[in-house]
């Protein structure tokens, strides 16, 4: 359904006001039941859209010609499609007129064009999401001769992911850090790490200033305790608002994600994050071919390019399949707890209900979904 | 049809003007071209390797480019200090200077946009920001506000002088009712561009050094000191190299503006320092780092301790009317004030915002050679654009460039 707006939002009121889509319980086939006065505000096109949606829904049964040429689209869509098709056409011509190129490189050129001019993943329909994922998998196959699997699985209903960290248990082994790097295909050259483990002195409290987040000695060190930080997947994330192109957003299951292909690399989100949760690809990320995790998600651990942001996604490629993130699985002490906040029987809910939990920098109003507690 | 002919002839005439000149002029333009080429070479390296060739890191993620951008928005906004009295208050005095001021604003805005593009990780996908084909996160993101106000201001500052010069070129009077509304709009717009740019930083709760209500007003005060100071210097140069007449009275009035703005700026600086150091909190650490260094890390000390004395010295000297009226001292004051504010509002504002980091980590920042090269290249671009604009404008204002009917009809 076209509930989600596909253009910039001028929504000055409450953010969650959804456009009525004519799916209410009443039997009025012409749209929503209280459509009397409201209908006045719909213009002809919107009304037509709503009416069609209500009567035949998404599957509009048209013949082939109509499906291609009689598509409802606004000016933006039309312009975008026109530009894209022109450019694709140009690309196709340049690749098909060349006699030297083999079909593979023609296909590669075609994929590159479509990838360059595709839209924002956040605004794609499920069909478009699948197409881009297919293109990316095919492109990888064409370039390396190897297959990867990439998912575009959406958030499931009644799921809201949360995380808890047991400060008493963490011993600073950093197994979570290396598991994260391997799972998420992070750049090996710059040693990018989403997780930072802060080594703090006993008796000094949570004194981040004097903590060391880059230690190279045997752990647990005498007289120290450890605390991990990463992206906290805030419920009110400051990084999302500041992005000029909506390349980062909060998914329905609470994950704050990035469309790496839509990001323009201005790093405003990095300045806005109070938790050091975001990383930038200052150069082309490099992962040795044999170390690549081929089990990928579009919003998660697929290969990034230079000049874009990335961050922890609670391993979206794992968590949406019902698995724990790599850091949780790798932790040898059980300090890390992950789960669905909406499931009353989950471990995370037990922790929140029975432990004295706290969050970092709560005064900023970011509402992190990452809690700390002690035994 | 006639309009097209006039425009064609104007373009040809101005091309003719900007390619001819004294030896000094050619040397100057050649020098700028060389610096621009070096800058482009540096930028090509940056495009190829990524932003890793700059001194920026995950800890300090904005550096020299954004510093210069911030400062130049102020310079651009300052054109308003000349526009307002000339067009709105009917102070004929400024009329000569205002075209120069607006030319300066155009050059500064072009530099701003160039700095922003240089700072982008993916300049090839910047079309994502174009409303209509991309996604423009308005009004949530202050950056989109900035895109709107900067481009709008650029448009205003190109169209007003263009209209006036275009009329003068045809030996006609520019019609007041056409350009005055635009000029009035640009007055508000100039305050807008600087305030919005300040809000870009001010709205980040993650960075206490910026998240401070005085940031916006202080941006305005420092801009209205540094911008007109630059205009005075430029007018002085134009006065000595061309036949363009700029009366002493004009420069005297601009100097007055600089003085008042610099005084207000100093008061705000004192207020800021008082807040940070009288009852220092956890949030004052950035200021401590900037002024005194933290845990032995003190890369910014030489910068800020150059800026503060220069700033104070210039303000004090300008305050005395006798000193201000002496051109040599005035130019000197304007120069040191310009440098002081460039440091304070660029480096001294952007870098400490990231230090210490969100968890207290102190990672210092120093620009690399490539970054400096690109920066100098963009400054040269600005100077180049300004020289072209100023030379054409002066040519038209002096009556050297005029539309000749026979030229196009024959």
From TrEMBL, chain A:
Presence of the UniProt keyword Iron-sulfur in the record: yes
Chain residue ranges for the region called Disordered: 1-40
Record bears the keyword Iron-sulfur: yes
4Fe-4S ferredoxin-type domain mapped to chain residues: 254-283
Bias type Polar residues, positions: 21-33
UniProt GO molecular function: 4 iron, 4 sulfur cluster binding; metal ion binding
Keywords: 4Fe-4S, Iron, Iron-sulfur, Metal-binding
InterPro entries (alphabetical): 4Fe4S_Fe-S-bd, 4Fe4S_Fe_S_CS, ET_IronSulfur_Cluster-Binding
CDD domains with a match to the protein in the record: PsrB
UniProt xrefs under Gene3D superfamilies: 3.30.70.20
PANTHER family reported in the protein's UniProt record: PROTEIN NRFC, PROTEIN NRFC HOMOLOG
Protein name per Swiss-Prot or TrEMBL: 4Fe-4S dicluster domain-containing protein
Organism: Flagellimonas alvinocaridis
Taxonomy of the source species: Bacteria, Pseudomonadati, Bacteroidota, Flavobacteriia, Flavobacteriales
TrEMBL record, chain B:
Compartments reported by the entry: Cell membrane
Membrane topology value: Multi-pass membrane protein
InterPro entries on file: DsrP-like, NrfD-like
GO cellular component: plasma membrane
Broad class of the protein's primary localization: membrane
TM region(s), chain numbering: 27-46, 66-85, 97-118, 147-166, 178-199, 219-238, 250-270, 300-320, 329-355, 375-396
Keyword entries, A-Z: Cell membrane, Membrane, Transmembrane, Transmembrane helix
NCBIfam families on file: DsrP (NF045798)
Family: Belongs to the NrfD family.
Protein name, entry field: Polysulfide reductase
UniProt organism field: Flagellimonas alvinocaridis
Taxonomy of the source species: Bacteria, Pseudomonadati, Bacteroidota, Flavobacteriia, Flavobacteriales
């Amino acid at each position: 359904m076209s509930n989600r707006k596909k253009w910039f939002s001028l929504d000055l009121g409450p953010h969650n006001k959804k456009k009525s889509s004519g799916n209410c319980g009443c039997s009025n086939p012409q749209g929503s039941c209280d459509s009397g006065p409201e209908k006045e505000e719909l213009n002809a096109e919107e009304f037509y859209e709503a009416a069609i949606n209500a009567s035949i829904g998404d599957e509009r049964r048209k013949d082939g010609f109509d499906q291609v040429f009689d598509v409802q689209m606004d000016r933006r869509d039309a312009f975008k499609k026109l530009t894209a098709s022109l450019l694709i056409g140009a690309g196709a011509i340049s690749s098909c007129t060349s006699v030297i190129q083999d079909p593979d490189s023609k296909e590669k050129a075609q994929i590159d064009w479509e990838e360059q001019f595709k839209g924002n993943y956040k605004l794609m329909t499920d069909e478009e999401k699948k197409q881009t994922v297919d293109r990316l998998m095919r492109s990888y196959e064409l370039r390396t001769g190897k297959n990867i699997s990439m998912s575009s699985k959406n958030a499931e209903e009644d799921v809201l992911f949360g995380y808890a960290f047991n400060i008493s248990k963490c011993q600073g082994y950093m197994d979570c850090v290396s598991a994260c790097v391997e799972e998420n295909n992070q750049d090996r050259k710059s040693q990018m790490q989403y997780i930072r483990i802060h080594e703090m002195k006993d008796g000094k409290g949570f004194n981040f200033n004097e903590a060391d987040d880059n230690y190279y000695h045997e752990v647990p060190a005498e007289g120290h305790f450890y605390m991990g930080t990463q992206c906290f997947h805030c419920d009110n994330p400051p990084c999302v608002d500041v992005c000029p192109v909506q390349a980062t957003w909060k998914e329905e299951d609470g994950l704050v994600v990035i469309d790496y292909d839509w990001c323009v690399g201005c790093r405003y989100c990095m300045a806005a994050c109070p938790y050091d949760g975001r990383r930038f690809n200052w150069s082309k990320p490099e992962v040795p071919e044999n170390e690549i995790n081929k089990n990928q998600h579009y919003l998660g651990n697929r290969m990034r390019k230079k000049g874009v942001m990335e961050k922890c996604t609670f391993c979206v490629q794992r968590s949406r399949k019902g698995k724990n993130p790599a850091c949780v699985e790798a932790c040898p002490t059980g300090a890390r707890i992950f789960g669905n906040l909406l499931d009353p029987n989950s471990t995370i809910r037990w922790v929140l209900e029975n432990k004295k939990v706290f969050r970092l920098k709560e005064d900023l109003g970011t509402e992190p979904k990452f809690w700390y507690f002690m035994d | 049809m006639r309009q097209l002919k006039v425009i064609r002839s104007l373009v040809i005439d101005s091309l003719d003007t900007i390619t001819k000149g004294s030896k000094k002029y050619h040397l100057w333009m050649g020098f700028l071209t060389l610096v621009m080429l070096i800058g482009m070479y540096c930028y090509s390296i940056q495009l190829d390797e990524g932003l890793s060739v700059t001194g920026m890191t995950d800890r300090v993620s904005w550096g020299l480019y954004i510093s210069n951008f911030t400062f130049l928005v102020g310079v651009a906004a300052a054109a308003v200090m000349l526009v307002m009295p000339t067009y709105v208050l009917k102070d004929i005095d400024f009329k000569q200077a205002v075209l120069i001021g607006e030319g300066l604003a155009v050059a500064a805005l072009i530099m701003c946009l160039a700095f922003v593009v240089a700072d982008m990780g993916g300049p090839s996908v910047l079309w994502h920001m174009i409303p209509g084909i991309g996604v423009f996160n308005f009004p949530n993101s202050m950056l989109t506000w900035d895109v709107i106000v900067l481009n709008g201001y650029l448009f205003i500052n190109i169209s007003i002088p263009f209209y006036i010069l275009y009329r003068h070129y045809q030996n006609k009077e520019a019609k007041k009712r056409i350009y005055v509304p635009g000029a009035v709009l640009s007055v508000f717009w100039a305050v807008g561009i600087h305030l919005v740019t300040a809000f870009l930083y001010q709205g980040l709760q993650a960075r206490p050094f910026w998240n401070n209500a005085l940031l916006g007003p202080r941006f305005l005060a420092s801009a209205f000191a540094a911008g007109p100071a630059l205009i005075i210097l430029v007018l002085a140069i134009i006065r000595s190299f061309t036949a363009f007449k700029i009366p002493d009275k004009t420069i005297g009035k601009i100097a007055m503006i600089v003085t008042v703005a610099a005084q207000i700026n100093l008061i705000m600086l004192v207020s800021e320092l008082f807040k940070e150091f009288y009852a220092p909190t956890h949030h004052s650490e950035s200021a401590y780092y900037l002024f005194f260094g933290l845990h032995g890390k003190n890369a910014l000390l030489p910068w800020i301790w150059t800026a503060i004395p220069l700033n104070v010295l210039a303000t004090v000297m300008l305050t005395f009317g006798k000193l201000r009226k002496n051109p040599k001292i005035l130019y000197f004051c304007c120069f040191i004030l310009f440098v002081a504010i460039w440091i304070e509002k660029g480096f001294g504002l952007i870098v400490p915002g990231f230090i210490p980091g969100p968890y207290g980590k102190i990672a210092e920042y120093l620009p690399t050679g490539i970054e400096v090269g690109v920066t100098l290249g963009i400054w040269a671009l600005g100077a180049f654009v300004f020289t072209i604009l100023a030379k054409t404008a002066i040519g038209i204002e002096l009556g050297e460039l005029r539309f000749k009917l026979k030229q196009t009809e024959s």
